[in-house]
Amino acid sequence: MGEPQRRINPVGDMLAGLRRERRWTLADVSRLTGVSISSLSKIENGVSAPAYSVLVRLAEGLKIDISALLVSPREALGTGARGITRKGEGPSYVNEMGSYEDVAAALSGKTMQPMIIDIPFRDDSDTRVRSEHRGQEYVLVLKGAVIFEMAAHEPVILGEGDSLYFDSAVQHGFSAEGPEGARILSVCHAVNAPALQPKPA
């Protein structure tokens, strides 16, 4: 079997550069973030790309803006700040959940992280991919249909134009309903907020 193929992954380059700058070992970063040394090594070498939940742990543990892990921030949020992302021009990376495009990479200091995610089809023999990260998440289905699974709830199918808002600290996952795949807009909010409660009917 050959060597694992290196992927184009800005997270690994950013992490390696930050370690050199701060003279940290992988063990130092692991202690700060709770991410295993093995996982950190794979990320730096481009062998694997981190899930959003891992990005949150890295950003919080290293005290950096999450957008800095995807692209060098060009403008900090402030009065009148704005960021424009042309179609297909956001920095992208791939992990087990799907193919991600960061559609607000031009700004740092964000309290929300919007991403367009292409979700693959997974048959019954595939390992279920799950995520959990502090905060809340909004999802809008842009194309196709997705199966959304969340701990303590029955799976639900969401079609084009359907949306979902949920507590992202609870384990959850998406898969496309059909072999053609699906595309969603995901907006994650990682700032501490009151617990979500359904409104009375």
Automatic annotation (TrEMBL):
CDD domains with a match to the protein in the record: cupin_XRE_C, HTH_XRE
Keyword DNA-binding applies: yes
Keyword list, A-Z: DNA-binding
Entry-linked InterPro entries: Cro/C1-type_HTH, Cupin_2, Lambda_DNA-bd_dom_sf, RmlC-like_jellyroll, RmlC_Cupin_sf, TransReg_Diox_bact_type
Residues annotated as domain HTH cro/C1-type: 15-69
A molecular function (GO) term: DNA binding
One family name in Pfam for this protein: Cupin_2
Gene Ontology cellular component terms for the protein in this record: cytosol
Annotated protein name in UniProt: Transcriptional regulator with XRE-family HTH domain
Organism, scientific name: Kaistia hirudinis
